[in-house]
Amino acid sequence: MSRKRSKGKRITEFQDYERSTDNNGWEVSYTRMTDIQLHCMNELSNSAFRLYIMMKDYAKGQVEFTYPHRIYSILFSNQGFKTARKELIDLGYIEDFTSMANLRKENKYRFSSKWRERNNQKIKTMLDARNKRPMKQ
Predict the structure, then answer these.
(1) Residue 40: how many other CB atoms lie within 10 Å
(2) 8 Å CB contact between 33 and 42
(3) Strand pairing partners for 20?
(4) Closest by alpha carbon to 109, among 62, 70, 45, 73?
(5) Which pLDDT tens digit goes with each residue over 37-75?
(6) Would you say 55 and 48 are in contact if contact means Cβ atoms under 8 Å apart?
(7) Which one, of 79, 84, 36, 33, lies nearest residue 56 by Cα?
(8) What share of the chain is helix, strand, coil (3-state, %, to 5)?
(9) Burial environment of residue 48 by CB neighbours within 10 A (0 to 12, 13 to 18, 19 or more)
């Protein structure tokens, strides 16, 4: 079930796990992150983690999105944003795939899964430990 914005643009469809409804039937969305991803995000600084969560929330389920200055300037200075963004790009959480700086428009970003490739051993260890736990009866 999707709603329409006033200009006729469709709001992004969420996956079933990214959506819930309240008592009145209105969609209430939230950011879903797996425990594996949260475990691997321990390497991020506080500002990079906060920026990533804000980006996930602003993207509303889309893989590719723009992130305007009016949004990140609420919590970050320009230098703080650039530092946190560089950290997310270097560690493989996002990709800066279209730079619009010469046009003075928002850059386009894409969520990436390169962090999984870099943390394969850590993820494998975590999953092995989880599988060895005894099941509750």
Answers:
(1) 20
(2) no
(3) 28
(4) 62
(5) 777 788 899 999 999 988 888 887 788 888 888 888 888
(6) no
(7) 33
(8) 45, 15, 40
(9) buried
